[in-house]
Amino acid sequence: MTADQPPFRDPGLSRGARVDDLLARLTLDEKTAMLHQFAPAVERLGVAAFRTGQEALHGVAWMGPATVFPQAVGLGATWNEELVRRVGEAVSTEARALRGRDERVGLNVWAPTVNLLRNPLWGRNEEGYAEDPGLTSAIAVAYTRGLRGDHPDFWRTAPVLKHWLAHNNETDRSTTSSSVGPRVLHEYDLLAFRAAVQAGAVAGVMPAYNLVNGRPNHLSPYLRDQLRTWTERELLVCSDAGAPSNLTDSEAYFDTHEEATAASLRAGVDSFTDHGTDSSVMTGRVRGALARGLIDESDIDTAVRRQLTVRFSLGEFDPGLDPYAGIGTDDGWNTPGHRALAREAAEQAVVLLKNDGLLPLAPGGRIAVVGLLADECKLDWYSGTLIHRSTPLDGVRERFGADRVTFAEGVDRVRLRTGTGEWIRVPEPTGDAADGAPERAGALDPALLAGRTDLPPLTSTGDPAAASELALIDWGGGLLTLRAPDCRYLSVAEDGRVRASADQPGGWVVQESFRLEPHDRGHLLLHLGTGRYVTVAADGLKVAENGEPFEIVVVERGEEAVARAAADADVVVVVAGNDPHLAGRETEDRETLALPDHQDRLWRAALAANPRTALVLTSSYPYAVPDAHAALPALVWTAHGGQAAGGALAAVLAGDVSPAGRLPQTWYAHDSDPAGLLDYDIIGSRQTYLYFDGAPLYPFGHGLSYTSFGYDALEVDLPDGPEGAAARARITVTNTGTRPADEVVQLYVREADPRVRVPHRRLVGHARLPLAPGRSRTVELTVPTAALGHYDVAHGEWTVPGGRYVFEAAASSADIRRAAELTLPRIEPRARPALTKGLSAVDYDEQSGTAIVDLTKERGDAVSADAAAGHLVFRDCDFGDGASAAEIRVSGAGDVLLALPGGTEVASFEIPAGDGGPYDYTTLRAAVRLSGVRDLHVTLRGSVRLARLEFLA
Hints:
- By secondary structure, this protein is of the alpha+beta class.
- Among the domains are: 26-55 and 158-312, Glycoside hydrolase, family 3, N-terminal domain (TIM Barrel, Alpha-Beta Barrel), CATH 3.20.20; 419-549, Trefoil (Acidic Fibroblast Growth Factor, subunit A) (Trefoil), CATH 2.80.10; 707-824, Immunoglobulin-like (Sandwich); 834-952, Galactose-binding domain-like (Jelly Rolls).
- Helix 1 packs across helix 12, helix 14 crosses helix 19 and helix 16 (558-567) runs parallel beside helix 17.
C-alpha cells in the first residue's frame, strides 16, 4: 500500500477494520444510495458501482448464453451433493467469466432456493430441491459451497438463499399469510436454511413476498432471533423485487412508505430491490424516514456494513489478491468440462418410476418418439440462453440411429374461420435471409395473420391452403398456445396486433397464451396476456375489448398422428410434461395434479396402438397419473434437464446409464391427497412423507434401477456412549445384478414410542454409491442425536425425549431394507407449568380452524379463529394445588371458552368490540376450579386474537 492510500485499501488489516474505515469515509447520502439494489459508484474514493442480485439457480440466468444445467428440483433428484457442488462451481466460474465481458453480470448471486416443496401444486416447484429439510439442506450446502469457492478469504460468488420464510404458494403471494406454529417452524422451515448458513458458504438471504403469522417476511423477527444467531459472519438481506412497496401498497401493513422502509431496515433488510434501476424512490423513502425520526444513521450504517463485507469478500478491493479475478471467457465459460457436467447432471437426475421389463430398450427395433415435449428442450424463467440443445428426439435419434426413429408431435391441427367464412391464415415464408434460410413468416411487421380474400385460393379439393393450418396445444385448464406452419407461436405485441412471431412461449407476461370461450356462433379467443379478445381488423388480427366468434375446424387430432406412429413401431416413447412458462410458474400455482387432458389422450392412444409404450414425464413438478401407472409397462420422470436433457434421457432409455435418480418429493395419486395449498401446518394436516397417512402413487425417495441391490445387516451404535452427541450407522450394500449402477442408500429414523405427534420416519442421512456388478461398499453415516428430537412447545426448547429409536436403511421412504434399534436415556416428561408460567396461545399441541397472527407489528404471535370456531388443545397442563382464576390477554371481538376433555366448561369470556384495532389488547379474568395435571381445550369465536392465558392460585 502506498502512503496516500486509505486503510480500507490495505490488505494487511483485518477485513472488519477495512470495512469500518471505508464506512467512516462515506457521507450519509453515499451510504443511503448504497441501500438500493443498484448502488452508484463513489468516484471520490474509487469505489465502483455495485448491484445485488444475479440469478443463478441452475446456471447464469438472464445474461445471454450460458451453460444450462437441470432445474433445481432435478438437481435435488440426484441426491448427490458432490455433483451439485461441482455444478455450483461451474455456475460461479461462468458468472466470473461472463462478468469480464459484461459488467451487468453480478457476483452477488440469488441462489439457491431452499423453500421446501411442501405442496406440489406450487407454481415454483421447479426452484426447490425437496420436500424434506434434511435433503434440501444437504443439496443447498453443496451448491453454495460450489458457488462460494474454497479460498479461505475470497469468494468466487456470494450466494443469497431464497425465500425466507415458509413460502410455498404463488396465489396472492404478497397478501397471504403462512400460519406456522413453533414446531413446524423449528422442525421444518428453519431447518432448510440453517445448515447452509452454518456451513459458512452463504452471504445472506432474501425474504419472501408472503407474510408469516400475519407479519410480512420483510419484517421477520426471525432474521434477528434465528438467522443472525447461526453465524458470526455479517449476513446480507436483500429484499425481493417490489416487496418494499408491497408493505404499504398490496399489504397495507403501514400507512406510509417511510414507515414501511424504516421498519424493514430495522428488522434487518439491507438492500432494497424496488423500482428497477431507479434508486431515487427508495432512497427518498429512506431520507423521509430519517427526517421523521423513524430511523437514525446507525440503522443505515448497519446495513451498509453488511453490504461492504460482501464486496470485500468478492475481492473488489483486492484485485491483485483475488484468486478468481483472472477467470476469462476462454477458460471459464462453455468449456468442455461444463458441457460434460451438464450431461452428467441430467443423467443422474432421471428417475425410473415403473418398469415391467420394457426398459432398457433393445437395440435394433423401430422406436416412435411422440408427444408434445418429444422435440422440445424447454427453458424456465431462471435459465440462461441455450448454447447447446438436445431434445428427447435428438437424443434417441443419435443413440439408436435416425433411420430407426419416427416422430409424431401429437398437436391438434386446426383452422379458424370467421363468421363471414374467411380462413385465418399465415403468409408463407418469403425471401432469403443473410444466412440462406427463408425469412420466417410473421417474424416482422407487416407479415400479419389476417382474414383476407386476396390470399391464395383454396385447393382443388376445397380445403384451405396450408397457410391456414395451426397447431393447437392445450396445456391444461383450457390454456392454449397456437403455432403457425413455420413453427412460430402466435403472440401479441405492444401494438395489440397478433403475429406469428415467437420462437417459444415466454416472458414475465406470456403473450403467447390463449383460451377458447364457448359462444353461440363458435368460440371467442381470449388472449391471456392482455385479457382482451382476438378480433379481425382490416389490416390483420388484433386484440380488443370485444372479440368476434371463430369456428374451430379440427383437421386432425393429435392422438390420430400418435396412433399411426405407434402402430408402426416396435416400441413407443411418449414424452409429456409442462412448459415452465405456462400453467404453473412464478405468479401462478397449479389447480390440479392431473396430466393435461391433451397429453392424457396421447399416451392412451399410443398404448391402444402399441402395448410396448413408455411414458416419460418431463416436468417441473409431480403429476397424479394413477391410470398411467396401472396401464403402462414403464414410466420415467425427469425435471427439465437443461442443454443436455435429450442425450441424457436417451442414455438411460438405452441402458448406457442405469437410472439412479430418486424422487425428492411425494407423488400423490389424487388431488384430494395433499392438504390445501395455503395450509402450512404439515403436522396437523398430515403433509409430506413425514406425516402423510395415505398411500402415495410414488413415495419420497422412490426410484428404480436396471440392476438389484442387497443390504446387509444395519449396525447402529453410540461410539461415545449413551451421552454422546452423535450416533453411527453402518450398512453394506452389494450390487447383486449384472449392470453397473448407482444406489442411493437412505437412512431414516423413527421414534418407537412417541409421546407427541412425530413423523412416520425422518431422513437423517443418505449416500449415492456407484457399484459394479458383484461389488460391495460399506456406508457409514453419522447422525447427531439432536436430530432425533423435536421442538417442545410446552417448554420452548429442543428436546430429545430418549427411549427406543428405530433406524432404517432404505431404498425409499416406503422401501425399508434393514432396521436396527438404538436406545437413548429416557427423559421423563414434564407437565406444562401452567399455574406458574401461564400459556402462550401459540404454543398449543393441536389446533383446528385457527391461524397464527401477529401480536404486534414488530414481534410476537397470537392465535385467531380462521373458521366459525377455532380450537386449541394444550396437553398436560400442571395447575398444581389449584387455580381459582384464569386471565386471558386478548383483542378483537367474540368469545373464548375454556373446557376440559369431554366438553366440561371451565370458563367463558365475552370480548366486546372495541375501537382500538387488532393490537389493542385487554386482560379479562374469570373464576375457575382447576388442579393437578389436565388437558385444556380452548375455543375461539369471532375476531378475537388470543395472546396468553394466565392462571392464579
